[in-house]
Amino acid sequence: MVNIRAIIPVAGVGSRLRPHTYTLPKVLLNVAGKPIIGHIMDKITSEGIEKATFIVGYLGEMVEKFIRDNYKIQCDFIYQEERKGLGHAVHMAKETFGEDELLIILGDTIFDVDLRSMLSSKSSALGVKKVSDPRRFGVAVVQNGTITKLVEKPETQISNLAIVGLYYIKNSKLLEKCLDKLISTRTLTKGEYQLTDALELMIQSGEKFEPFNVEGWYDCGKPETLLATNHHLLKVQNNFNEIPGVQVIPPVYISPKSKISNSIIGPYSTINDGAEISNSIIKNSIIGYKAIVENSLLHDSIIGNNSIIKGQYKKLNTGDSSELEFY
After folding, report:
1. What is the mean pLDDT of the chain?
2. 243 and 111 in one domain?
């Protein structure tokens, strides 16, 4: 069996998800009942991948603790002090490549994809999806089923196939060589070392890449996209038990370790471990670990861990340990 190592960059500070990411790394934010990185780890371990390298930064010790506490996998943690782009992050992990093939997967994006099919490709493969505005992404030019060119954030449209952050690399030694060249020649695009540029060097060196269509690509980088991802995941994995005195409108995720009374929950709501909810209506929202919500009407809201919300309101985005009371 071919040895495959997952490379998972998780060093971002998640500035667009503040205030939540002041106290929690972005990849540990809960969506549909588990942290973002938990969904990714469940996916790769279910395919038999037993080795992973994490490139960590801000609050990285929390990521390491979560992985070590919850997954029996051979793992390495590389600290990225300066964030200089995805190419730089993967380059930092090169000492762990060995002879393994690589599955590079972004730690803040959830994919609904058949990984087994991608990993059975006879050549390297890149996850792609058609988008209306490709200028915000790295894009792939495809001819006769083969990727012939990669360009990071092109000014003019040369393709509408965006690279979605899922990369299967069969020749890790060549990737290492191309990343070394990128760094040594200080080849920057948009002020950063781009993995797309290193992959383009691989193509120029003769490496064959196939496109792999990814329809289920769910970003978790902003409050609205986090809620949208929560919405999708709940729709496909609805999970709850009936609760006396509580009206549940599926799909929802309600932790069996939460306490809920005289309330309406759902649709599209996640209630995490230890949350206590009473006399409230909650829809399309994520309620954090040990949060308390009383006498409230919440929708399109993200309530941080250990927050206390009391009183009527409609839409909130609170960080951990916030306390709000409305009378």
Report:
1. 86
2. no
